[in-house]
Each structure stands twice: as C-alpha cells, then as structure tokens.
Amino acid sequence: MARDGWPYFDPEYETLSIRINPPRVSVDNTSCKDCTVVKVDSVNKPGILLEMVQILSDLDLVITKAYVSSDGGWFMDEFHVTDQQGNKIVDSTTREHMEKALGPKGHKQDLLKTWQGKQVGVHSMGDLTAIELTGRDRPGLLSEISAVLANLNFNVVAAEVWTHNRRIACVLYVNDESPCRVANDPSRLSAMQDQLTKILHGCEEGENVAHTNFSANFTHVDRRLHQMLFADRDYENRLLSTETEYDPSCAPKIIIDRCVEKGYSVVTVNCRDRPKLMFDIVCTLTDMQYVVFHAVISSGGPNASQEYYIRHMDGCTLDSTEEKERVIKCLEAAISRRVSEGLRLELCAEDRVGLLSEVTRVLRENGLSVSRAGVKTVGTQALNVFYVTDAWGNPVDIKTIEGLRKEIGQTMMLNVRKAPASAKAPEANRWSKTSFSFGGLLEKLRI
C-alpha cells in the first residue's frame, strides 16, 4: 500500500521493457575474413552505446569498424573487432563471456569484474579509498603527491594519471599501511587532503585552480578522468603535441554539418587511429549531453574515420557557431588526452608503502617528467607504467635511461620502449596486458 498519499511505483518497472525484449547478441566469426562481427539488438535507452563500447574496450578488443542505429526506440549495433594483435576472437571462453557481458544480465551480474585475467577499469573497488586530484601540471608533481601519501603511511594500490594542456587529473586508490586495512582515520584523511591541495595549488591562487576529493562513485575510471579534465576546462588554451608540431597532418580534423532531412547534426572525425578512440569520443559526446542516433566507424591503416549523427538531449541540433566550436574543442581534447608521447618505462617490484614515491623521486632527480602513468598491484607485485619526457617535453636522452637502470636496477625490473605511434603497432611482450588497467586487483580484493 502507498503511504502518505504517494502513488506506488514498482521498482522493476524501469527495466520492464528490457525484460520483455532482452538484448540479442551475436558473435560471428564466419561472415568476415579479418575480424569477429559482434551484433547487438536491444531496446534503446540513454547511454547504451557507451555501455557497449566500454564493455568491448574493457575486454581488450580493438574496434576496427562499427555501424550504429538507434531510431524508433530500438538499438542496433554492429562492431567489427579483433584482439590486440589484429586477430579474430577464436577463444571460445572469450566469445562466450562477450555474449554474456553484452547480454541482458551482463551489468547486473558484473561479469566483467569476475572474469579472471581481464582488464577492467572500474572506479571504486573493494575497501580502497579513491582520491581524485586535478590541478596545473608541472615537472615533479607526481613525485610530490606520492611523497605526501608515503609520509602519511598510505599505500597506493592503483592509480591512473593523465596530463593534458598543462593540466593533470589523477585517480589514486589507497589503503592503510597494513594490507587490506581500510583508510578511514578522519584526522589522517583530512591531513592528506590539506597537504595534497596545497601541493596542487602551488604558487597559483583562486578556488578553481586545484581540487582534491574523496570519491565513492562507481564511474568507469577512464570516463571519470575525461569528466575531471572536462570540468577543469582543459580543452581551452590548446597546445600542439610534439607529433602535431612536426607533422600537422597528425592533428585531428573535426567537421560539424547538418543533416536537414533527418534533423541531425553530423560530426565527422578524421584522425590517427589508436586503442579506445571510439570510447573516448562517445564518452565525451555522452557527457556533453548529446545522443548518438547513428554512427559509422572505419579504420584503415594508421588512420580512422568516424561519423556521428547526433542531437542534444533536448532534441536540438548544433546550430550556433559557438556551440560547434565548443564541441570541436572538447572532442580534440578527448582524442589527445590518451595519446602518450615520449618513452615508456615499465617497472615491476615487490609492493610496499612508499614504492611509488621512491620511483617518482628517482625519475624527477634524473630530470624526467611524467606525462601519463598507470599503477596497479597484483598479489605482492607492483606493476607501474610511466610515459616520460625531459622537463621541457623533449625526448629522453639514452644516457639518462642508462643512469636510471643503474640506480633502480637492483631493486626492480625495468623495461624501456618508445611510445607506439599508432594503434596498429601491437605490444609484443608480456607487459602489454599489465598497463593502465585494474583487472589484476580483482582477485586480490575479491570484489
């Protein structure tokens, strides 16, 4: 019975249409010679395209082509996917799990989280405290942040760090000094927040210069980093990357037109192809409150072409010049945030409190600046990946790397590689599955 005159709503009503018409998923290896074709038919709902693309990305699949249509309340998608080496998905376990994850019970059962060995970018996990930081980037900043955490005896179990247009966004997952102990001492958490905020502010003034927050939401970590940099307005005062500076053809080309007959705005993106490109674009359009009704995605060689037919959630198209320019700026930022220039350092060592502080201190003392980082812990092993340049954004001198090897080679494994110029260059060794992911934490934390 409803009380106080309020009408009663069945909590299951929201999912009624999906339960009546559950998603149909097909994984086909016969119709295409070079890739696996994944088809999903479902009742349309807000954000469903982003959900599908996010699942495929979390399964380490590369989307080479896609066809999207969601008019008339029905959602029909076709994705052409390969593994990271460009091969079809022939493993029956992977295919079966893909069908379940994209199907009607995928999100409810959290299948991606429980599939051992796969990389999943969940934002909140287990008993870890999530810390979100944004501010102005500078050489040595990550070292200062990790030093604060080490001094307060917090252990960094996982972290993602992005820098773009001289801004930094990072999400750090910490626990207390002893393993599996929740960091919940209010006085220490307050001290941590105060010290981190002072570091992020540096010599700048103003309330909006830097932010330090504790997070309890479950947003996908990559999406959360996009949201944090977007809120920080990193798309303004655009800077040329090193690659674009020397080769203007590498810069993304984004055009916004109108499809008058159907009442859509058409966003066309041509740029260098790379992993998770479609996710980054769809994520940004979704968070800017635009709905994708149709899309055609294609990648050939090193380049990708993507076309999206969109409207704002209120049904309007992009009519004003200012609105179009803002969307173009935001998409350019979304495309370039994940592009990692410089040298890639991969380190493996026994996990301990202060390890991240020690490593970043050594990088700073050798004149290296971190442009992007991924940290995770599997069992007792810490696996860290850093993309580094010198303090002015130039390539790192090989003598610096040799000195780095001598300094840290006694306590940890170090692998050095140049950042891949294209998504078509597969990562050929065992490290390729350990960077920028949180899947290895799942077994340890049992979530």
Explain how this protein is built.
The C terminus is likely disordered. The strands form two sheets. The protein has an eight-stranded antiparallel β-sheet with strand order 1-2-4-3-11-12-10-9. Strands 8-5-7-6-14-15-13-16 form an eight-stranded antiparallel β-sheet, sandwiched between helices. The chain is globular. A hairpin with a 2-residue loop joins strand 6 and strand 7. The chain is built from 14 helices and 16 strands. It has 447 residues and is an alpha+beta fold. InterPro entries: ACR1-12, ACT-like_dom_sf, ACT_dom. Binds amino acids. Pfam families: ACT (PF01842). GO terms for molecular function: amino acid binding.
Short descriptors:
447 residues, alpha+beta, eight-stranded antiparallel sheet, 14 helices, 16 strands, disordered C terminus, ACT-like_dom_sf, ACT_dom
What's the β-strand tally? 16
What order do the strands of the largest sheet run in, or round the barrel if closed? Answer: 1-2-4-3-11-12-10-9
Main sheet attributes: strand count, strand direction, barrel closure = 8 strands, antiparallel
Instruction: Using the alpha-carbon principal axes, give the shape.
Output: globular
Helix content: 25-40%
Helices, by number, come to 14
Q: Uncertain segments of ≥5 residues (pLDDT<50)?
A: 108-124, 421-447
SSE string, helices as H and strands as E? HEEHEEHHHEHEEHEHHEEHEEHEHEEHEH
Pfam families: ACT
Protein name: ACT domain-containing protein ACR
InterPro entries: ACR1-12, ACT-like_dom_sf, ACT_dom
Keywords: Repeat
